[in-house]
Amino acid sequence: MAQCVQSVQEFIQDSFVPMVAVLCSEDAEKVTRKNNLNFAELLRPFCRLTSEGHIRDPNNQVQPVKNLRISVNNVCTRPAPATGSLSPAQRRLLGEVVSSIQPPEGVTANIITAGDHDLSFNATTPWFEAYRESFLQSMPASDHEFLNHYLACLLVVSSSEAVPVEQFLKLSQEQHRIQHSGDYTNPRWFIPNTLKYYVLLHDTSQGDEQRADAVYEDMKQRYGSQGCYLLKINSRTSPTGADEQIPDPWSQYLHKNNLLSQESCDEPAPPPVTEANSVVAENDIGSSEVDSQDSADKDEMPDSMQSHPLQLDCPPSGGLDSLGVLPPGGPTAARAAALAAAGTHGDCLTLNDHDHIRQFLQEFTFRGLLPHIEKNIRQLNDQLVSRKGLSRSLFSATKKWFGGGKAPEKSIAELKSTSGLLYPPEAPELQIRKMADLCFLVQHYELAYSCYHTAKKDFLSDQALLYAAGALEMAAVSAFLQAGAPRPYPAHYMDTAIQTYRDGCKNMVLAERCALLSAEVLKSQGKYSDAATLLIKMTSEDSDLRSALLLEQAAHCFINMRNPMVRKFAFHMILAGHRFSKAGQKRHALRCYCQAMQVYRARGWSLAEDHINFTIGRQSFTLRQPDNAVEAFRHILTNDSQQTATQQGAFLREYLYVYKSVSAESEASLPKLPLPCIHAAATRVYFGHERRLAEGEKQAATNVSLDQEYDQEQAVMWCQLEEQAVASAHRGVVPAAFQPSQCCLNSQTDNLRTPLAVVEEPIIVEVTFQNPLKVSLLLSDLSLQWSFTPRDLSSPQQGDLPSDEASGEPITNDKSENKDDVISSEIIPEFNFGPKETKVARLKLLPHMIGQLNILGVAYNLASVPSEEVAHCAEGQQSSQPLVVRGQQDLEIRGPRLNSTKEDKTSVSHGQDQRLHPLITPPMPLMEVFFLQFPTALLCGEITKAYVEFCNVSGVALRGLRVASTHPHFFTFGGVGGTSSSSSSAASTPLSPTSAEVCSAYHTLATPPGDPHHHLHPGHPPPPVYLVSSPVEGLVRGKAVAVEIPLEGGVLRPGQSAQLPLWLRGPDQEGVHEINFLFYYESAEKGGRISHRVLRHNVFICASRSLSVCATACPSSVPSADHRGRDAEDGDHLNDGMLVFVDVENVNMSEAGVREFHIIQVSSCSRQWRLHKCINPYKDKDCKLTSRERAKLCFRAARCKPLKATSTTEDKFTFADLNLGNERIVSSTTPCADFFFRCCPSDPVKKEGRAGGLSHPSSRTTGGHWTWGGGPIEAVVRTCNELDLNIIVLWKAYVVEDNKQLILEGQLHVTLQTVGKEAFSLPQKEEAQEMVLLKFKPDLPPPVIQPSVEQLSTLIKTNLHYPETYSHPFVHERLCVVPVTLTMSNCALAEVEVLIDLRHKTISPDSTEVHGTFTWLGQTQYRRRLRPQEVAPLPLRACFLHAGVYNLSTPRVFAKFTTPTRKEEEEGGVAVETSQQAASPALIIITSQA
Asked: Per the database record, which ranges form the TPPC8 C-terminal Ig-like domain (predicted)?
């Protein structure tokens, strides 16, 4: 139970006090009425004695009487109602007592933490204490107990009477007649010989004091000094001044005792219950408590709520518009106002008069009442003792004779229904009970308990249920109140008494009193669970007010337990609120529901939470608290409700009605609406014009739009492209203040900095709405709410100015009249939501001024769409207009959580999110890009030509146009090959993209008529050679660098357009490829807040397989002197010749309608190598490939002529073209050279730089010998096998499409880097790496890679020069000597020592002699030193003995560096000779002359 002001002992003592009656003469009443009081009311504030009294018990022991209070009441002879229940008037007045006391405002509520619940509620319940006190005082007197019977009677006569003694005699006779005549059943008197105390009331302001004293002396003579008293009052003669304040102790007692005075003396008839006053109203006890069954029948809800056990007392319509609205204070306020109008109390009394009254009561009690009680206790004790010998012994003997000893106490179920049994007044059982009550009233609890216990046994033996229950009740209370607690509190006594009252006697009033007493005792002992169980058992349907109060107290018991039971507290608070509502106590009902809501809120109990909120909303609306009602209904609609669609529709209509009534009263800013839900974090903001769709053949750039989903990886990619473009525009350096452009802001973008928008460019805000209900919603006139502050941004950038430095007053669209001149707002006329639908709305703003814009929220009209059931019920009736309310919702976006500092990590703090606060800047250029003839599918390596159109749609000129891409090898704008190539290329391409002319995308030259393979024949000059400089910007192979787009004059004026050709090449790998372009441009006007702007475009290209190229290279030798002489004229070194084998395979599976491929040309590009000639044996066969066919081409490559080192030739590449058809493509011009530089995987500058550094070694002569000084020998050996030769294979494909034949062109690239190693045009699949075991020891440093044997065996290249046929007359001369020249070529870039061994040793099958043997004449071994790349001849002589065919390739050649390698140095510092590769067989035919 809740905490009480009084302790349980004080509460019980004040519940049972001595009763004193008052009989006043008319003159005495006139004296007291001067103070707006009667005599009983005059004494009431002073009835508690401050002094301690004493009595002696029958054993002559002194018993103290502490803190005694007496009850003084006027004599009322009106018959009392039945004791089984309260009368309607009593119920109504009890309801008024409860409703008059509400929780005090401003008082700190009690906060209890139970688990994860923090509950705030009132620790005390003064309305319950007031109800309990009024209930106990209103209990009628009963025959089975004497506690509320009158012990004494005050006879009051005024001193102004002519003969006061006669008046006393009349009052005494009147009291005797009322008590003993038998005509009156009320009031009841304790004993026949009632104490009569005579009071002479003297009005000091008017009466004669001497006469009063004389009369009082006469009274002493007649009634004794202990039986009379002279009370002087009304000492004040003048009205109370403003500066003099006399306390008014009567006001608090008069309201409490209003129930007694009205019920006992003048009980009014119940007012007629009509339909008008049966509407729910606060404290309408007549309609809610008189007939609970009728009230239950009237308590109806809509059909959707009838199944709920906690249904409200609402009219059948279920709408709040039909509810009666309570007046601000109810009928209690009217009664309080009437009481206040009567004036104050005690106006004629002074503080001395207060003391006189207090002294009178103390004198009466100590000298009259207590001695009278003590005397009666002794008399009753003597009577009981004298009677005990005869009557009790005879009674006991009879029981022993017939019953056989002491009868056990029978349970209530065994007792008969003898509640109507009445004992005669002189019955011994009643005398014992009377004595017990007297002892209890004077606080002699030990003797009282003994008497109650004795009486209890007698009553149970007689099966007198009512008497037995009363004895059990008071015995339990007496046992509890005994000092020192000699025995435990017998709670089972109370349980038995309550059960007897309720079930056996059908007396709920006594049962309630017993429960109230027992609950307080159990609470004081900490037995809250037992107290709650007891209180819950006392709830019933006969009294909603009592049930509500007891359920509330049970809830407090649950929360005050050692382990608080929070859910039980909340559940019983709900039950109490429901019963309060049925009892008409709307404010108390609202309080209970609000306290229970603390437990159910956000705990997953959605249905219970909805019911509580709905009830709070209705109760608040009834009590004229519309703000609370709106808030409660808001929670119903915003939570994830599990209600049915019909119920949710009813909730929505209720809310709209309340909301509309609230908004009608307040005409301020638009109120907040809870529906639909807005996901503020999902809000996206787009700055700029929306993308235009394709126009005819034009395809617009995709750019950024709200239709695209945000991808973090894509955002990083676009940021990198923008950095490349910015760095290209700023000489390769990204400015420190660079910030990537963000056209579309969302929850994943960087929103910490203020976004920049451009004036006269739209701002589109995408707001995500969600309908949480199962019914449809209708929104109309949807628009954005904004605030704009004009600012001067003409000065250079100095950061964003603070808001207080703005150059204008804020302008809002809800109050400003010229808002359209500042910002134009788009309004969506209608926006519908289906049940549980999530929908986005895109609202547009068009700023017309420069300044700071703040987007605050959205405003709209909300209406409910009638459900099918409601619409079906409304058929045949006049359709009512749907409820439409206008409101708004704020867009409040919380930034990301801060986690940089220690304070941020230990607390929860969030940064700013500026996406809804853009800064409107001055005009900027705006460009649109269109693509013409842009393909969607290409063959791998296919070359095609498209066009790009750039349009400046703004009023500001743009410059610095650049493009960056993730696939720079995919496109080119040209620029390689010089002016001549550009002019020739332009002449061979159509001037307009709409032309249907079919032509080549390459720069082609027609070959002379005749043999197309003219370069294959001996004597024909080699193919032409072109020198091209390495690209500077955008053409570095494998690197994504922004390319500057050439514009006429470098500027694109407002409204102008520029159309440029764009060459495209299909990716080398098949599949779908995403190509991203980023166009960068700046404003021609400097000093703006926005430094540049970008435009994005992404396309998807489907690449199909075409050709696969595999190339290898191996060293070649020149066997004849003719070739040597011709090559020497060309300046080539014969020892550097290479054979290049190119295998081309058609890997296209007839995809895209491809019929066949033609290899039309093979070109090379390198700094040191070029293709010299084609030595394909099939000279007359066209290189045509159908599906899965393969062709093998063989070419001879030679080193280029060394160029003089100048600034112009330092970065030159040599292009050589070998065409296989009737026309030759100039590979050194656009687009062939562009795609070569973009697509080759290696960096030519770096690669060729390394090779070039080793091609011109720093050599010197020391003592006639060449030495190497250019680095380690290992690098020299690697360089011997390195080959940086790029092969470009150009092809044509014949495609049949729509019964038309098309010719496609393309090129493939192969880079040869190592001699003898295959190179492919298509990327090869990498083999899966084997699993590597974990190593827990640190790895050793990697060993130095030593040259392999294969690399060291290719240092020296040898050739034998000899006559193919030699005739000798063997008949005349036996020995035939033939001169042979051995040519040795040093392929290394270091000095090499060569050993030639001429001894015959067969080392391979190739060296096996064909016929006979021969021998070499002269030395068998020769040693030579060859300088880097030196060619040295060695004359030899071969001797033959017979004619035949001989193989001269028998010399073995060994070579070693003059400088040892690192490994050789570590092993001893001596270079090791390595056998060189054997030369090809050299056959000579020796014939014999006749």
From this structure: 1355-1456
Domain contains 735: no
C-alpha to C-alpha distances, 329 to 128, 259, 623, nearest whole angstrom: 19, 20, 9
From 330, 364, 397, give the residue that closes a domain: 397
Between CA 468 and CA 579, with CA 511 as vertex, the angle to 5 degrees is 170
Taking Cα atoms as reference points, which of 125, 1078, 174 lies closest to residue 535?
125
Residue 1409 is part of which domain span?
A: 1355-1488
For residues 1173 and 1219, what is the distance between their CA atoms, to the nearest angstrom?
10
C-alpha span between 1135 and 1266 (Å, rounded):
19
> Are 1132 and 1197 found together in one domain?
yes
E strand spans, 42-116: 53-56, 62-65, 71-74, 110-114
The two three-digit tokens of residue 682, written as one number: 């999902």
Q: How many Å apart are CA 1171 and CA 1192, to the nearest integer? A: 16
C-beta separation of 75 from 498 below 8 A: no
DSSP letter for 1354, please.
T
Identify whether the C-beta of residue 496 lies closer than 8 Å to the C-beta of residue 464: no
- The total number of structural domains that make up the chain: 4
Whether the model clears a pTM of 0.85, i.e. scores above it, the answer is: no
Whether residue 1445 sits in one domain with residue 1314: no
Q: Name the phi and psi angles at 524, rounded to 5.
A: -65, -25
Q: CA-to-CA distance for 1400 and 1406, rounded, in angstroms?
A: 13
Q: Which amino acid, one-letter code, is at 452? A: Y
Task: Write out the two tokens for 1130.
Answer: 């060309």
What CATH code is carried by the domain that includes residue 31? 3.40.50
Given its phi and psi angles, is residue 1028 left (phi above 0), alpha (psi -120 to 50 degrees) or beta? beta
Amino acid identity of 955? G
Report residue 1179 as tokens: 């000279």
pLDDT digits (tens, 9 = 90+) for 1150-1193: 766 788 889 989 999 988 888 888 887 555 456 888 888 888 88
What is the spatial distance between Cα 178 and Cα 185, in angstroms, rounded to a whole number?
A: 9
**Last residue in a domain, options 1265, 1293, 1320:** 1320
Which tokens sit at 456?
């209890």
pLDDT tens digits, one per residue of 860-919? 998 877 655 444 444 444 445 678 888 888 998 888 888 878 887 788 888 888 889 999
Q: Which tokens in the block code for residue 1481?
A: 């067989």
The structure tokens listed for 742 are 């963000």
Rounded-to-integer distance, Cα 484 and Cα 486, Å: 6
